[in-house]
Amino acid sequence: MSIFYTQSTFLPLLSVNIVLCVAACNNAEYEINGRCCPKCDPGKRVHKHCDEFSTTTCESCPIFTYSDIPNGFIECLPCSVCDTSDGLREKQACTVTSDTVCGPLPGYYCIDSLYNCKRAKKHSSCSPGQYIKQTGTEFRDTVCDHCPAGSYSDGTLCILHTDCESLHKTTIREGTDTTDAECRDRASLLTVTLYVCGVCLLILTVITVIIVWRKKKTKRGLNQVPTKKCTEPS
User: Fold this and answer.
1) Rounded-to-integer distance, Cα 56 and Cα 96, Å
2) Whole-model pTM?
3) Per-residue pLDDT tens digits for 113-166
4) Alpha carbon distance 133, 147 (integer Å)
5) Residue 228 lies in a domain
6) How confident is the model at residue 25 (pLDDT cuts 50, 70, 90)?
7) How many separate domains does the chain show?
8) What's the distance, CA 35 to chain centroid?
9) Residue 167 DSSP code
10) Structural domain of residue 174, as residue ranges?
11) What pairs make up the disulfide bonds (predicted)?
12) Is residue 10 in a domain?
């Protein structure tokens, strides 16, 4: 009785081991229904699984699908679409053996690029008073920094303020980090002299006119004073 029990215990274990050994497929095979079938090459899919009489039947992946590894797929993988609304463009078209390769649009950079660029964002713009320290790339945003003292920018490059003194001009407005200094031509000594003389001459002319006018008015008033006629007594 004990011998029978021992045999009945080990026989199922033995059968399980045999099945596991049979079902252990190598890397060039895939398991289906307890049978190891040869895999299809990249660019193909399984049309019909193998059986005891025939090997695996494969066929090419349909358009807009691919398989990039030896496989036992009955359906190929769909090709990725590079959506411009996600800031993407197509760098490499999909083939039966490789997926579409997407890249960022000009002026954009990838923010999700573990295996393939899935989403991109527009490069940052530097503000007035800043300059582009590092230009943005496909995988990095623009890096901005503030312009040093004595310079200004519109958000691209820093430009030194105009030195009015070196141009022999007068500064009428100091430069800021966003605007340049404003200069004005200096008046020459001759110009200043002529200007002052002209003003003085104008003032003297006005004063002279006023004096002459008052004298004439006074003289006219004296001439208009009525005279009394003397009459002899009768």
Assistant:
1) 19
2) 0.59
3) 767 899 999 999 999 999 999 999 999 999 999 999 999 999 999 999 999 999
4) 10
5) no
6) very high
7) 3
8) 56
9) G
10) 124-195
11) 61-76
12) no
